[in-house]
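#data-curation
PF: Archiving a pair of folding outputs for the training set. Convention for this channel: one message per protein, sequence first, structure tokens after, nothing in between. First:
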Amino acid sequence: MKTLTEGIILKEQNIGEKDKLITALTAEKGLIRGFAKGAKNIKSQNSAGTQLFSYSRLCLIESKGRDTYIISEAKSKEMFFGLRKNIENMCLAQYFSELLMTLLVEGEKSPSALSLILNSLYILANEKRPPLLVKACFEMRLLGICGYMPDLTMCSVCGEYDRETFFFIPHTGTLCCSHCSSQDSLPKSIALDRSVTTALRHTIYAEEKKLFSFLLGDSSLETLNKATEEYVSNQTDRHYKTLDFYKAMRC
């Protein structure tokens, strides 16, 4: 059975001298793995369409008794060439791929996740927003899509919405205001001023088309990213080597 779909290549692995095993997030089949015969050869018509971060038109053929597909055709629609001009952004995109491959269930459609990665790569490739802003939005929105939705609407103790300082608790995904507690009594929390609290809420509750439509200063962006990274780490209970590599490239 053949399926025509569009998808973003999240991982490519050379198999033998000529073939590739790719992982892609597709519109029709969700997260899939597939063999592309001969695609390692740059002269192959499927070479470009199976490259990392190529958004491609794919023809998938189901393999009987296997959980992988045969990719009989791969035509690139968008290559995000701008990513390859900046090693930091390329590393960040690989971190996004690792998050997707970790959190998504293979074979289940996720149009929201597909839209999120495409928009994120477009912004990175064209340098529309600071990379740390894109990273924070991607992390929090993806976790929300995958069932790890935090509750950032108000203080979890008194119900207050607006305070000068909130403490974000990554383990629970909740906020505690400065009137109800302090960082001494919440040692694993992260202090957020009003602007960072607003930004963190935005990453979760903003409309999709407005997700990246805010700006923060460098110091505030660093605090925001500390909060989002800790939330990812606590909720997924996993260490991400691609994140380590991205941080190394930023130094």
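PF: Second:
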Amino acid sequence: MGKQRFKISYIRKPFAKRSRICLFLAVVSLVLCGVSILLSVRQQGQGELSVAAWAVSSFLFALAALIYGGLAFLEKDKNYLLARIGMWMAGILVVLWICVTVVGVISG
């Protein structure tokens, strides 16, 4: 039995439509996370309700990005690179916000 040859396809597959939405939502979530952290640092940890609103918005956008990323993988014969990037970003942000919430509840 000889070595298996791998076929290389030079046909470019289009990006999945929902993967662009996923990446956009993940970037928006990252920006909202940055704004929330910046406001919290500027107020020395004594953030007002607006800081919590930025954080919850970031969490919700990250959840939406995860949903759209999952739906992008249901599209057949597409390029899923943007969906993978968006899902990694959104997944990390969701874990970050869950950890921050748990620490806040335990210490508060």
